[in-house]
Amino acid sequence: MTSEIRIFGAGVAGCFLAHLLEDYKVEVVERYPNSCPHCAFGWARYDTVRKMHKLIGVNTEDYIYHKIKRAVVNGVELKVKNVATFDKREYIKDMRDGINLINWEPTCWYSDTKVLIDATGYRRSIISKCLGTCPEGATQDMLITCVQERLRSFTEPVIYIYGNRNGYAWAFPLDDTWHVGAGSKRGMTDAELLVRRLLATIPVDFGKRRCKCVAPVMHVDPLELSVDHPCAPIAAKIHGIPVITIGEAAFCTNGVGEGNTSAVESAYLTYGALKSTYPWNDSDGLVKQYMANMAQLWKRIHISYERTRAIEKGFWNALAATLKYGNEFLSFSPKALLALWRVTHER
Q1: What is the pLDDT of residue 226?
Q2: What pLDDT, on the 0 to 100 scale, is given for residue 332?
Q3: Which residues span the domain enclosing 158?
Q4: CATH number of the CATH domain containing 306
Q5: Mean pLDDT over each residue of the chain, to the nearest integer
Q6: How many structural domains compose the chain?
């Protein structure tokens, strides 16, 4: 046996899990080892990430660009808590050091191992091979296409957001650039319109564009997904070997599309299931423990989708959801109510 665990995908979730499993024989398979992330540079619930990084000896502060203190939402300034932007390129590069990283080989990818981990994001490359019903990974009804670019300018610790019932645009400060993008249920044309509306409201003199890309983001409430959906399973078997998913492949993105924090959490919860069921002779027991551990994360993600759906229905629904669930990132105040009203009334 060449490995006890084979992880597919050397992103945030896959690398973090590999470091947690340093006492086991682990291989991390990456199809695009030289690729670099151009998007998703934020940690929501930053304190949670910092605590988990301590488990593997990583200092989160080494990668932080800005700890965000305020946000401007549809022209209304709000206080922000527990959010930071970080250098994801450097983070991924460093996390790949010290793990057994190998290139993808299409033949016998399931042989000589006891557990397979799918950390391939929205593509769900490994679980899809096992199911056979969803060969291209996530289907279009599970994705929102986002337009994204990086613009040069002086940065400050503030997030700018412009949203309506169909989607929202954002501008996050990085090093000497802003990460600007948008996603909309109406498609890419509407997302680009949201970006233009946002940029028109920001008092920043943007310079040259550094890069631009279009990328899909998983947008699925894990507790609302029909069991009959071809992509619904998040665990399977191939030739008796258990296959489990983490990160975006396990629908761990919240209602506004942030998945970095949930990726780390899903890896940690999966590590707990693996550790408690070692040596994995009972594959059904491993999957059962994994599902039990992940349930707490999916419940929190479900609440974020409940908030998002409430905003789509209008102000009073959004207000009721905010009162019921609270808000992890924004302080609840009269200004927050005004911002919420503006978002729910924009078309």
Answers
A1: 73
A2: 60
A3: 5-345
A4: 3.50.50.60
A5: 85
A6: 1
